[in-house]
Amino acid sequence: MNLGLNGINGNGLNTLLTWLGNKDLENMETEQSAAIVALAIKSPKPFDKIVILSNHQEAKWDRYERFLSKRLATIGRPHENISINKVSIMSPIDYPSIAKVTKHWVDRLSEEASTLSINLTSGTPAMASLSVLIGKAKTNVSFVQTSPSNELLEVDIPLDFANEYRYSASREIASNAASKPKSEKAFSDINANSMPMKLTVDKAKKIAASEVPALILGETGTGKELMANAIHKGSLRADKPLRVVNCGALAENLVDSTLFGHTKGAFTGAEKEHAGLFEQANGGTLFLDEVGELKPDIQVKLLRALQQGEITRLGDNKTIQVDVRIIAATHQNLTQLIEQGSFREDLFYRLAVGIIEMPPLRERLDDLPDIVDQLAQQINQSGAKHPEYKGKIISKSGINFILSQPWKGNIRELWSTLNRAFLWSETQQVDENDLMAAMINRQASAQSEEVSLSYSDKVDIVQLTEKYQKKYVEAALKASGNVKKHATEMLGLKDHQTLTNWMKRLGIDNHK
Fold this sequence. Notes:
This protein is of the alpha/beta class. The protein has four domains: 14-153, Rossmann fold, CATH 3.40.50; 182-359, P-loop containing nucleotide triphosphate hydrolases (Rossmann fold); 362-438, Helicase, Ruva Protein, domain 3 (Orthogonal Bundle), CATH 1.10.8.60; 461-506. It has helices at 22-29, 35-42, 61-74, 95-112, 125-135, 161-178, 182-186, 195-209, 224-233, 255-260, 277-280, 296-308, 334-340, 345-351, 368-383, 396-404, 410-424, 432-438, 466-479, 484-491, 496-506, and strands at 14-19, 49-54, 82-86, 115-119, 141-146, 152-153, 214-217, 242-246, 285-289, 310-312, 319-321, 325-330, 354-357, 393-394, 429-430. The longest helix is centred in the first third of the chain and has 18 residues, at 95-112. It is elongated.
């Protein structure tokens, strides 16, 4: 029988290393053999030294040493160099502590012995597997085990773990290269058919792959949180926590505690210590929406967290190390806030490393049909829970109307409008008229340099200078689908002939 002991130097030390198993101790009580005794008695080459590791039932160790020594002495085998050694492990299945102990003893015994045999039967599976992993790296180590009936079994572990690991890792790399890239999956929820959005997503993918802080800028409702989620999912921190907070929605007296945590008794009502969002996001990402709303004192603590990677809980003077990637977002003009003294310039430059500007919906006309389709599906799915609800679709005229509107509130305004149109429509096809009725009246400002009007907007055009008159007339014609009657009403003019006269005076062509 080949027990992996070939090549043993008959003049050298032959050592057995084993854990002390429960079965070994149980069988001792009835003077019966278990794995350790069976190996020591039946090994083709007697063991000169037997080293046993254990962390339990210490009161029985002396008896077991005498029991094993007596059994070996009876058959004339070496029996004086037997020791049970106390080791420190967290539990019988705690891999880190078991690995540390195993490595120590394998390194030590393999150096002093010509051959070292390791018992794989006694102990837990964790002990056996780590013995194999560590022992395979030694040229003079072999492995032994027994059957339930205490027969010696051949142990053949032909794997070269180093080569197998490299092979497995190479296969994983090849598999990932052939599959859809992680960043592609991360950004799959973002519609990017329009050129502005394609450029934005391309930039975001590069930022996601790095560890730099990111600052997402854009009007309200442009999807800044969706982009932040995509950046996190496309980063190396994807399997770590993502925590989200709207800084503008936090009560001023709770901002510090929410972000950085607090100790027990730090303020009235602090009945126990609390880990803030920085600690909760440790190793992952923290998304600070509307970061421009943070007060100066909190900006100082945020800057420290970015610069030094440490925070201090409210009511404490002890610093806590954190590893958090910050993604911030705002619809405000931070450079103006800096000029006004309400936002720290040094914090701005810390945040504004990877800058992403989300284009408004009016610049994403190629994305609108897909976005509308997704939103319609969501509305229908939600409505389907009602027994009398019937799914609805948007007509071609409805899509054209949507494309003609500026959507100043971007996706949020579009979502709200579609919900109202689906709710009020009496038919299963939502058309242009349903959408017109669902639009919210907004008073247009005469001070805007870039003019766009929604269907129900109204202005007093006679009060505007000629510089703006042309822009408003063109915007009203676009919003109304070039229907002069409605454009006239939008502009507050007397009749459509008056509008025609204005158009001639302003040099505006109307193709309808």
